[in-house]
Amino acid sequence: MDMADYYLRLKMRYTAEADGTWFPVTMDELAAVFDCTRRNTQFLIQKLKEQHYIGWQPGLGRGNTSKLVLLRNKEELMLERAQYLASHGQINEAFKSLRESDGESLHAEFRTWLVEQFGVQKQKSEADVLRYPFYRPVLDLDPMKVVRRTEAHMIRQLCDTLTQYDAASGQLKAGLAHHWEHDGTCRRWTFYLRKGVLFHHGKHLTADDVKYTFARIRQWNRKDWLVKSVQTIEVSGTYSLCFELQERNALFAHFIATERFAIVPDDLEQLAARRDFTRLPVGTGPFSIISNTETMLVLEANEHYFAGRPFLDRIEMWVWPGYEEELRQEQPLANAHLLYFEALNKVESVQTLNQLELGSTVLTFNLSKPGVLQDLQLRQAIHLALSRKQMILELKGRRTQPASGFDPAFYDAGYAGDCSAAAALELLKHSAYAGEILQLYTYEYFSNEEDVRWIQTVCRNIGVHIELNVLPIRELSQADLIIQADMIYAGEVLGDEPSITLIEMYRSNNGYIQNHLDPSIRHKVESMLSDAISEQDEEQRRVVLRAVEHELKQQVNVLFLYHSMQEVGHDPSLHGISLNAWGKINYKDVWVK
Questions:
Q1: Where are the alpha helices (DSSP H) in 127-276?
Q2: CB 93 within 8 A of CB 51
Q3: Which one of 8, 44, 125, 361 is most buried, counting C-beta atoms within 10 A?
Q4: 405-425, pLDDT tens digit by residue?
């Protein structure tokens, strides 16, 4: 407890005493206020006086009354206290500290101050600091274990892959490897690494680091379909190595451009003895991670980045649960998911970027296990009960357009155009459903939880009973748990190279669709995926993958619900900004005018 806390105890005890007015007190009385001994009370009184919280006139002789004057305004002090906590990343604690204040004015003043801290902060040293709020901590940053888009995006700032996909040109480009080639059969791939690349802790990148990265993934997840396809990895030199695959894979160089194949140093075990690698990963990326706690994440520019130093010097993510709701109390920001923003009094000048998300929310039916969901008419009844347009209209938010598949460009208005409770009831009447309770799982995320409650209500209205299970996403990424669920509701977002994301999603041994596939079509789907992996032409791959999607819809194995709008507001002084497929901004390209 610091002096401000002890002073606030005095203010709470002597509420009737005006600031600047002397009043009598005894040492025993103050000891009770501070809950300590007389000796410690004398020490605290001296400290409070030195720091100009109080004035003090000691009584002469034991038992004589002393005089005290309170010099600081309670509200000002509480505001300073809240500002101090927030500036040290403790935003929740800051709001809690204001609960004892009277009225809303102090909370509003603090919110206004808090928002002024976000956006671009120009330091006296001329360092450019980008600071923004986020609703949760981001602590799960081991590249091979990434399961969420925000974590994947952050890994991109910290680590590099052998190759990189450039969405603007639609081409694969050099990453840590400056050149790669295959032997014509697409089974033997050779990669040539850049020289002079440094990991954040100073170690030089070599082919041994690449080999170690893949061996580490194999050890952690032996069922990983891509790593399992690697027969051998041969280090042919300090900066070159060869991958021998078990089968033809024309897209191998594309798959290893995804963030889970970010290269980590081969001395990771020694590093892990000194730091939590999951929370504080070490890579070669444009930024290094300085700290990462429940309340704040801090990145700093990598001065030695091989592709050029970032323009920003520092990035701070302050964890502020429910920040959007707090801000709605001050300004009409209800429809904006503001990642960066200026002070509330300048909110009209905030610039926004938006795009329709490539991907869809989906409801999977578990057809890999026996049960009433094996009845096609029950699945069709649920499909017809869920009016996508009504869902979007009632729940609002970023829900934008009904979906008939992952790509909004291929929307089929007839997919869910005949949704109605009457049609659903008619199908249900002829189904085998007899009132069984269906277990619907989803992972913790506010829009997911709103969606499944809506689905539960709509299904109850036609007589289908659903029990909801909301779990941490890490738990719901385990095959053993996935196959227990009757249904899973989730959002699937396609990355910069959509066909690669789709193949990974369909083939993932911990994927929702993979584990819920009807066994009768599993072989057919796998055969189509093999065709897609062998296909070098992007458009032909998409044709094959749309055929997979069609098969899932024909079997009513997966329901597609809606597409979301990605929206980011940003400080007008930021330039070089564009949205990636995840609706995030690559910080390396951002600069301050």
A1: 149-158, 207-220, 225-228, 252-255, 268-272
A2: no
A3: 361
A4: 999 999 999 998 889 999 999
